[in-house]
Amino acid sequence: MKTEIISVGTELLVGQITNTNAQYLSRRLNDLGLDVYYQTTVGDNLNRLIDALKAAAARVDVILLSGGLGPTEDDLTREAVCRFADRPLVRDKVAEASVRAFFERLDRPMTDNNLRQAERPEGAHPLPNDIGLAIGWVLELPDGKIVMALPGPPRELQTMFERYGRPYLKARLPETKPLFSRYLHFAGIGESQLATRLEPFIQEQDDPTIALYASVGEVMVRLSTRAENEREAQIKLQPLMDAVIRLAPDFYYGEGESLTLSQILIDTLIRRGETLALVESCTGGLIADTLIGVPGASAVLRLGVIPYQTIMKAKVLGLDAEKLAEHGAVSTWTAERMAEAGRTLALSNWAVATTCVAGPTTQDGQPVGRAYIGLAHESGVYVHEHTVSGDRQTIRERIMRLALFELWQAILQTHQ
Amino acid sequence: MKTEIISVGTELLVGQITNTNAQYLSRRLNDLGLDVYYQTTVGDNLNRLIDALKAAAARVDVILLSGGLGPTEDDLTREAVCRFADRPLVRDKVAEASVRAFFERLDRPMTDNNLRQAERPEGAHPLPNDIGLAIGWVLELPDGKIVMALPGPPRELQTMFERYGRPYLKARLPETKPLFSRYLHFAGIGESQLATRLEPFIQEQDDPTIALYASVGEVMVRLSTRAENEREAQIKLQPLMDAVIRLAPDFYYGEGESLTLSQILIDTLIRRGETLALVESCTGGLIADTLIGVPGASAVLRLGVIPYQTIMKAKVLGLDAEKLAEHGAVSTWTAERMAEAGRTLALSNWAVATTCVAGPTTQDGQPVGRAYIGLAHESGVYVHEHTVSGDRQTIRERIMRLALFELWQAILQTHQ
């Protein structure tokens, strides 16, 4: 069923808050097998809200509203839906009792506007608010279309949707097959490069469908199909998965919706009982921060050193100051020594070192974006040179992703 | 002028990413004095995108599009606007040369689809992309309405909008009194705490208007008014600024739209000719990463050490292993020693150390969220204890902000 999410609130239109409700609802509706065609945001304005409802009703089957159910004059969702659907506004008796009980429990005087939160269009089914005052509700229109109103505060919205809204929608869904997806992750390959290789598949896509999602230094490909069950889905998805991975096998690192390279690295090293040290010059804490974001990182990451000023590379890591001056801070030699020194200092199995020119200006004759990533292990020390593009932050992020990817590849190639 | 933001991308409709672009643009457009009436999100679907453009053109004067300008078949914004406005698609010569030069510089083969990123509707003014490949553009319709297309990656969108999009819109604005704003920054105070104190001001707001923007560990208050000139604005804004600062003077750190605590710290230390070392346990690279994001940081930040495993606090920083075991890794004693050791190792004027329980589980009998921040300076070593709430990432971010704020306060109190 085609679905539209209408977020109500002037605070969204002035950029005061991020619309996380639209993302949350989109994800959960997709999980249910509903197709979200539009997300719309309107302010606390009665006529524009009614217009948005009319536009949505003309193009989708299910409308989810979030926000505008509070006690103030600005909260107009109830009134807008009543006008749009030509229904009177009524007070829900059960909800009214809850609101009154709430204020009695707190021994606080209840102002009358609070009872607005117990109102709903006549004929709408109330959705209880277990952690707040404003009730939600679902109204079915004569043509079978559904309008569901949920409160704006994210925790109230989520609790109400999970406990009452979602089951309601699920029961109303026509008998379709559920959606199954596979998420394939690639790193170290540009989005356009992978897109070019994928193009024939994307052009022919029908079932399963293919979508490509890129972020700095990473690409994820999603394959989706509807099927009776996991086994049928697997039979439909597996050949396409194999084919997509074969397009760039050297850059593929794994499958799973919430999989990340950091997660894989930490898990793999924990399994192997191995440890890691980081020596980050230009990435300066970015690799450490990313890895520490993964619970369990403390079993793996022993030490990080950020020898940000060149002299610190000599003083703390013991690099030969003369040779450092001769080769320059951004060089193969320095990356190699940094990695080795980190491994020695931390007594770790692995060490990764980064040194690069993040910009905005060139350094020691090296261009902006030039980077050296060093990897130290008992089997030896390896350095790769890269040149990446972007502003200061993007360069640092790309080098971080490349360093994680190279470490992961080196681990795979190393038998324990 | 009435404005609509259309975000393009199926990844938004399936809930894969949060729409931060809509928030960013809304805020910047409001700053310019444009009224955002609608935010709309559509997927990578040509017909629905054209329909969204038609609907927007029927109700607003300015349409801002974000996303759909990349190199793949899924990137349909160019084509949709061409069909909607009945214009042919042409290749921008300047942009084409940039794309080709980019691949030559990297010595990488360029696939043809990359040239799609240099295309625009005929007659549209190109907006350069200084940190990416896809150009943006502005098209003026025969009826005077404006369509501006910006790339989806947030950093590219922001850079392009600030450098080229915003000035373009500003020049096209009708002659109204310009909007003047003041941005007051607070750290170390909870958003709801500050909001409660601000409530009487917000309720009575008319001119100047007040808006509150909160992020983890930081709150910004914006005061705005329309005036003939800066002097008139200052007279209207100053009394309110003073009153707002008086609500939480100990937590106020400065005024300015793009001001950040990191920027203030780096600038202040550069001016004083002083240097800094970081010893980050639980924040693990987060403080370093934030400071290094500020150009010029290399003059100030000498060294970062992330002694993530407790044993490293002894081995690399020289902390007494027995006392460390006695006091525990998360303790006043350890934060104090870490800060001192960092200052000694880096020969810096200042050192900041963090140690905390980031969760998900308690540690050595200390609850999740307990933190110690150590500050070392020639005048002595100081440690503050905090208990903060949130998940792992939020706790780490709050401690990072608190550490920056405490360092800044300590610097202010120290005469050179």
Please specify the SSE layout and strand pairing.
2 copies of one chain form a homodimer.
Chain A: E1 2-8, H1 10-13, H2 20-32, E2 35-42, H3 46-59, E3 62-66, H4 77-85, E4 89-91, H5 93-106, E5 119-121, E6 125-127, E7 136-140, E8 146-150, H6 154-172, E9 179-187, H7 191-204, E10 209-215, E11 218-226, H8 230-247, E12 252-255, H9 261-272, E13 276-280, H10 286-292, E14 301-306, H11 310-315, H12 321-327, H13 332-346, E15 350-356, E16 370-377, E17 380-387, H14 392-413
Parallel strand pairs in A: 1-2, 1-3, 3-8, 13-14, 13-15
Antiparallel strand pairs in A: 4-5, 6-7, 7-8, 9-11, 9-12, 10-11, 15-16, 16-17
Helix pairs in contact in A: 2-6, 3-4, 9-14
